């Protein structure tokens, strides 16, 4: 049986700015749009051709909060 490490997860809230720590989008910053149980959906920019937002899903372990949204 494997032992699980207890990792404290600092969840972001909607409107917070985060920096992605792992994966293809590493070091990208974005604004949290939706918070889920195990991840957040982040808007990291806009498509210059269609003006649509570019969004990605990031696990809570794979980002750090840069700036908290004002309540």
Task: Offer a few descriptive terms.
mainly beta, 44% strand, 5-stranded antiparallel beta sheet, globular, 71 residues, single chain, 0% helix, 5 strands
Describe the protein's topology.
Blueprint: E1 17-20, E2 29-35, E3 39-46, E4 53-59, E5 63-67
Antiparallel strand pairs: 1-2, 1-5, 2-3, 3-4
Describe this structure in words.
The chain is mainly β. The chain is 0% helix and 44% strand. It is built from no helices and 5 strands. It has strands spanning 17-20, 29-35, 39-46, 53-59, 63-67. A 5-stranded antiparallel sheet has the order 4-3-2-1-5, with no helix packed on it. It is globular and about 50 Å long.
Beta-strand share of residues: 35-45%
Q: Distance N terminus to C terminus?
A: 43 Å
- Mean pLDDT score, rounded? 90
Helix content: under 10%
For the largest beta-sheet, the strand count, sense and barrel status come to: 5 strands, antiparallel
What is the β-strand count?
Answer: 5
- Radius of gyration over all CA atoms, rounded: 13 Å
The H-and-E topology, N to C, reads as EEEEE
Major sheet strand order: 4-3-2-1-5
- The coarse overall form would be globular
- Give the helix tally: 0
Low-confidence stretches: none
The secondary-structure class comes to mainly beta
Short characterization:
This protein is mainly β and 71 residues long. 0% of the residues lie in helices and 44% in strands. The model has no long low-confidence stretch (mean pLDDT 90).
